[in-house]
Amino acid sequence: MADGESIRETFLRFFERHDHLRIPGASVVPAGDPTLLFVNSGMAPLKKYFTGERTPPASDLCNVQGCIRTKDIDDVGDRHHITYFEMLGSWSIGGYFKERAVELAYELLTGDLGLDPRRLYVTVFGGDERLGLPADEESALAWERVGVPRDRIVGLPASDNFWGPAGESGPCGPCTEVFLDTGEEFGPAYVPGGEFDTTRRYIEIWNAGVFMQFDKGLDGVLRPLPFTSVDTGSGLERMELALNGLDSVYDTGLLAPVVRSVQDVMGEGGEVLHHHRVIADHLRAAVAIMSDGVRPGNEGRGYVPRRLIRKCVTLAMGRHQDRFDVAPIVEAVVGSLGPVYPHFAASRSAVLAAIERERDEFGVTVRRGLDRLDKVIAGHDVISGTDAFDLFATYGLPVEITRDLAAAQGATLDLAEFDAALRRHKVLSRGVTDSADRRLRTDDVLPVAVRGRTTFLGYDTLSSEGTVLTLFAGGTTVDQVEAGTEADMIVDRTPFYGEGGGQVGDRGVVEGLGEVTGTVVHDSGGFLHRVSVRSGVLRVGDVVSLTVDAASRAETAANHTATHLLNAALRTVLGPHVRQAGSLVEPQRLRFDFTHPRPLIADELVAVERLVNDWVLADASREVEVMDPSSAKASGALSLEGEDYGQDSVRVLSFGAFSKELCGGTHVDRTSQIGSFRVVSEQSVASGVRRIVAVTRRRAVEYSLEQASSLSEVAATLRTPAKDVVPAARRLVEAAKGPKPAAAATVSGGFETVVNEVPVMLAPAEGTVAALRNEARREAEKRGRVVVLWSGSTLVVSVPGSLSGRLRADEVLKTATARLGGGGGGNAALAQGGLTSVPTRESLVEVLGEAVAP
Ligand code: SER
Hints:
Blueprint: H1 4-17, E1 21-22, H2 47-51, E2 60-68, E3 84-93, H3 98-112, E4 120-125, H4 137-146, E5 153-156, H5 158-161, E6 162-163, E7 170-181, E8 202-216, E9 222-235, H6 236-244, H7 256-266, H8 274-291, H9 300-318, H10 327-337, H11 342-346, H12 348-377, E10 382-383, H13 385-395, H14 399-408, E11 412-413, H15 415-428, E12 455-456, E13 463-473, E14 476-478, E15 480-482, E16 486-491, E17 493-494, E18 508-510, E19 514-521, E20 527-533, E21 537-539, E22 543-548, H16 550-574, E23 580-585, E24 590-595, H17 602-617, E25 622-627, H18 629-634, E26 650-655, E27 659-662, E28 677-686, E29 689-696, H19 697-718, H20 725-736, E30 746-747, E31 751-755, E32 758-766, H21 769-783, E33 786-791, E34 794-798, H22 809-820, E35 822-826, E36 830-835, H23 841-851
Parallel strand pairs: 1-2, 4-5, 10-11, 12-17, 32-33
Antiparallel strand pairs: 2-3, 3-9, 4-7, 6-7, 7-8, 8-9, 13-14, 13-16, 13-22, 15-21, 16-20, 18-19, 18-22, 19-20, 23-24, 24-29, 25-26, 26-27, 28-29, 30-32, 31-32, 33-34, 34-36, 35-36
The structure holds serine (SER).
């Protein structure tokens, strides 16, 4: 029996033997890749090698990389899907390509790993018209050459055989995959031209080559990479299944002990059931993620282990495990992976404690949820989507568990209705960010008693009364809060905007009681006001007087409307391909991310600023229409890409004929209230996505004044009028670069004359100061004349050796700057300086007349 460790070593040694460098695997938490939640393949941490942004330690590499894939989470528990897996990977970065990759793959599979060649099938990219890519005949031929017959080479479309990118952007390309025939008990044999069953009988054991040719931008455009690469990856657990002829990955030495521990904990020995596999997989993945430092939470990364653990807890309790002992399962995971990955062993107790905490906090709610589910199911054939959503929002009961438990009692679930309810709530909390530190988090489960939506009055008013429905402090609901405490408060009606759609939540006061330092919307529709109680006592049931901070609301509104105008202006100036990719609206500034393939040039940026300011001056008034989503779409209103609003009605906001967007935010009444709009920065955030930071109102004016004063300072330093700073700065930069031997000055129209018996030559020239100096010296010696050259306001004077007793170059320059303004210096033979304006030939002749005394 091949075990995990022997397979890892066989794979790595094979590639080392073929001159690949073994490199360590990375954390499952990606470093510096905002487009990726978790490392999902061996190539993900190496992305920058493929784009040429970083140089690899060797062109051919191999390693084992822990990966997390949640995309197929619903398939977990079948023969071969798991959430955490180890990927055996090999790469050639800008080195060999298809033919060699295929040779190596075949040699390893049929040689070192000893698989029967007759059981191997391969798939190749079958071409794609939309992508403009032909079928990958080169790979097919390579497979034939090593010995795979044509009738076991299957061409598949891009959906199967075009891999990547990992995350939303990055390297990708067509690929070729190796499948193992696991035998006829798993389905009928493949017949060329027929369907190739990749779910049961034929199991993918190696993506033997992604042939990386493209860099996909966030705008969806495929751009050619500077060089081609090979990226391969094979799931260790599947390889163990294949080599040992097992039924599923759950029977491998890597997972079987974990599955057994689940059975033991649940007292369900004997047959391995689907939920044993799911719990084993989910806790194993949670341990892997948490061993890399992530802790369960409500946002982003932390939400993945939270969901995984919650699902396990619910599955266990739904099967009457009131005391779900997770410790032996965590031990089994660490027992199998700890010897290979020391960080599993090192963080064992901290991870176990965090999982137990999650189980305990969530367990009580789930118990109540399951009781409620029993009541909902009782006597019904169909569970409504609204009930299922309620169980999810109130008790955190995952919908698939509701579905399974209902099915066990012969009831079905209205999934479409559930999805609609979920979408509605996602819209309400859309864009909620940065709330990780809140005592009550937006998707924390609320007790039934405090459910209830908050009515938002803030479109029309900045102050109103509201009745306190709930208070949270110290992690639990309380009846009252005293002075000196912070609490989260839900009221029935509020003028406070709850953070969403990129706009920050309002701040303000609860009259006579304290301050509201922030507002967010809870998934249930209640607005959470973070209140700092300063005096008195705040009680549930009290009617409180709420007032939004008018000044910061006005700033925020100006920035939000300016964001809409910016969006419209970018589309006008750059083109309709521009799509919003994110935004943040605060009182201080606005930040807008959008798709565009390259940096904006200065003229484009100026055009955008000018257009937005024109629209500000147009003093257009705000028009709001509430309509159904399809009419909104038909009206041409901009909405966020891919966003399904799933609501009965949406707000369509327009200003003049230039801006029309779906938006729930708060805005100015008239565009002139924006006052002024200035772009502060423009930069890249990801491939194909640009970010503009801008300011409005007083901040825009301050920004302009600051820029003007910097310009004056620069001009004073350069001793140049402000309008000439650019050429002056250029000259300075050139001078700082030192003499450029190749760049000679070009002298045009030399004028020779004699001043007080001294022969001179005067000529306008072009070139750097260094070039002028060289030229002046050369000409002076050649001609035996004093030579005066000028380029713009730069002046160079050279006196040849033959006239050295007669006059000094620095004296001539001094006379010039005294008469014409400016400064400079030099010696008897050569001097240079900057005048305050461009001299004329006549003025310089006069200077010489004064400098060369008779
Ligand atoms: N990146 C490819 C995959 O994950 C090959 O490793 O399938």
